[in-house]
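Before drawing any conclusions, I needed to go through one protein's amino acid sequence and its backbone structure tokens, quoted below without any editing.
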Amino acid sequence: MSPPLLPRSRWCKTYMVVIVSVLSILAFQFMQSFRILSNLHFQQQQQLIPDLPVQAADAHININKKGSSLNVLQGSVDIEAEGKEFSSSKDKDEVGDIRGLSSYDSTVVADLNLNVMKQKNQDNLTQGAGKPSPLHKIMVAPFSAYKVDEAGDTKHRSCKKTIIVHGKEGSTMKWSDQPFDELVMSDIPSDSELNDDMLCLQVGSCVAALVSGIHTNSSIQDEGEGASSVIILGSDETDDIVHQLKRDMFEGGSVSVGIEVEIVERKSIAISQWYKPSTPAVRLARSTNGNTGNFIWQFGATRLINPYTTKFLNPLDARKESVDVDALVMAAANALHVADPDGNDFPVKKDYVYGMSSLVKEIDKPTIMLGIGIQAKFSDIKDSKHIALHEHQAHLMNEIAKRNTLEKSVSVRGEFTETACINAGVHNCLSMGCPSLTISREHNLGQLLGSKWSAVESKLAQDNSTLKMGIGLPNFSKHDDNMKYTKLVDLLLAICENHDCHFIVQAPFDKNLLLKHAGDKVDVKNVHHFTEGVETWFQFMHQLDFVVSTRIHGGMAGIVNGIPSIIIPTDLRILELINAMKLPYLSFEDVMAKNFESLQAVMGATKKDFIDFEQNRLNRLREYKSMLESVGLKMDPLLLDIINK
């Protein structure tokens, strides 16, 4: 039996109650969505939601997908994401990064509704007629770690922390891969704001300070008269920036293979023979150096280290001020003399090496040595296969080995020095040539030198062609070397007859010896002695077409600046460096036995292989990188770019 039907009036009343209830719920939701001010709708397809700025408001955010962050300038924010609630509040003009989820590792389609619930400061929403208000924005400002001013003084700036971004699966990262807008350093009112607590970003070969700016339509604005619009971010912002990098570079889809982020804290190192940033006092001290060639290898040893992640200290200052350092880098040259133990100068040379050993033991930190080698003439060594270090020299190498886990922690100048180490029972030496090989930032220096060499040959094949040449004078000052000096200088003068030659001296006695021997064949205005450092020397080298040098660093000054050069080895030290670095050279025996009368003839007799030179250069850079990493140091990013090219 069917239940009795409700009376019509009662049925209608029930029906109306249901309808009213439904409409009330819809109206309530509608008013919630549009109440008070506005509803902003953001939708991002196939990538994570970017930072969303909120100014002068309390806000409620409902996120139905993963991966959002929010910048809050003023007010409080509640975030509801996948059933979880998060809230935060920030004072005016302070940027906060609110992460709605702990997981943000997938590409999503996100629909974000931002409901502005309450406005606290109406004036902040507009700036003039229809202009949007300024908003905080993270940007990057690339800068040079070595800033040179108009007076030629150099200032070194480093970062307390550096975020280094690498590509996974062997991929190479480019600066253009990083997600932030770029700000030129000149837009920062005073670079004195590049402070000791600076946070930096390194992607590829470029390094930049991370800054927070006030922007309107992507242009930097002043907040007021005398006030800077840019704040240099400190190291405490590291986690926030790393989060944003991961989200925007990989999870956001701009880097398909993924990224690895490395956070590098600045290291303080003691470095012997440090090439200090140029100042009037430093230039004055250099002017008393008896051999300006020292500047070249000192510059190379210093500048192969990443300057953004490193603070350099003189070892004596570190000891005197009791400064705790992270590592010791000993740059050296011809400290390993093969002098007779019965010779008059042997005790002095022995004490010098003992002093180096004492420094290693006193600093007592991870240690490497760069560029040390044997100082010897051809006549000093009768059998190079059986040469061995003296006991005090081997002791120095063993002290370094104790403070490094790398098998090869000492880079020596060449095969003769490496053999001397092995014969003395020392096994941490590796033939690598001179650190000056690392000075050039040219991606393919061998190819550049080869093409310029060919251009010079073509030019010489034409009649009446004049080259601007650099000539490196020999290191002969004693009476028993007069015959060799005469032969070498006569050769140099002969190849200069049809060219504009400039003679580069490295020691105080070079100039007088040359003028005495050459007479009116040499214009004194064409004799140059760069006593203040490599900066003016390198600038001069760029004016030249070709270099012929009888000193190793006179030749390296040309090579590292992309000038084709020939080196004539006048002793065993130079010869082992030439062999280790695969440099173009004319043998000393050929110079003594033959009469070369032109540059063309000298070039024709020169042994060279620019392809072999470049491959060897890359191998040496990789070895220097490993050596630096063994003591916790990074290589200069421009050199890493050459390795990764």
Notes: Residues 1-9, 32-134, 215-228 have pLDDT under 50 and may be disordered.
